[in-house]
Amino acid sequence: MTTADSQPRTTLAELVAMHGGETGLNADMNCLATAVYFESKGEPLLGQLAVARVILNRASSGRFAPTVCGVVKQPSQFSFVRGGGLPAVASNAQWKRAVGIARVALDKLAKGPAADALYFHARRVAPNWGKRQVAAVGNHIFYR
Q1: What separation in angstroms does the CA of 27 have from each of 33, 114, 128?
Q2: How many CB atoms are closer than 10 A to CB 30?
Q3: CA 2, CA 110: separation in Å to the nearest integer?
Q4: How far is the C-alpha of 77 from the C-alpha of 74, rounded, in Å?
């Protein structure tokens, strides 16, 4: 696909496939990919990107921990974190996709549907947060 000015346009799926390698993961990349994996591995790529953006938005907001790992490991934020530690992840296609999403999000290679979101939850729960909904993707609802 090309744009009107004949520049090729890369889809999110192509970006994720290009950046889904498992080598060279620093701590923040690993924390972000692990969070994407456990929070949204069964979601559409846009939903996974939105989850990654929430974590990055929190780290830069001044209202949460200032690093990606700090946000992910913050007590009572993500249910997969136990005692401040991240669980092991199997090296499979879903993990490689999560790594690709993490790289795309960290490098700001694609815009997601919840660019300014700081919170999300699964559709099956209904917290009374009083926050402004900014997007709904797959099984998650995103808020600012």
Answers
A1: 10, 24, 33
A2: 18
A3: 16
A4: 6
3-state secondary structure of 97: helix
Stretches in the chain below the pLDDT threshold 70: 1-8
| Contact between residue 142 and residue 136 where contact means Cβ atoms under 8 Å apart | yes
Strands (E), the chain: 119-122, 133-137, 140-143
Which burial class, exposed, middle or buried, applies to 101 when counting CB atoms under 10 A from its CB (0-12, 13-18, 19+)? buried
Q: Alpha-carbon torsion 66, 72, 78, 82, what sign?
A: negative
The single-letter DSSP state of residue 9 is -
Which pLDDT belongs to residue 7? 57
pLDDT at 133: 95
Q: Are 47 and 40 in contact (CB under 8 A)?
A: yes
7 is written with which tokens? 């520049």
Query: How far apart, in whole angstroms, are the C-alpha atoms of residue 110 and residue 105?
Result: 7
Residue 21's pLDDT is 78
Amino acid at 70: G
